[in-house]
Amino acid sequence: MSAMSNQPANTETVTVSVPGQAAFRDGMARLAAAVHVITTDGPAGRFGFTATAVCSVSDTPPTLLVCVNANTSSLQGLLNNGVLCVNTLAPHLQEVASAFASGRPMDERFASGLFERTPNGVPRLAGALVSFDCRVMNVIEQGSHKVLFCAVEDIVSTEGEEDALVYFARRYHTVAGSD
Question: Can you give the pTM of this predicted structure?
Answer without folding.
Answer: 0.85
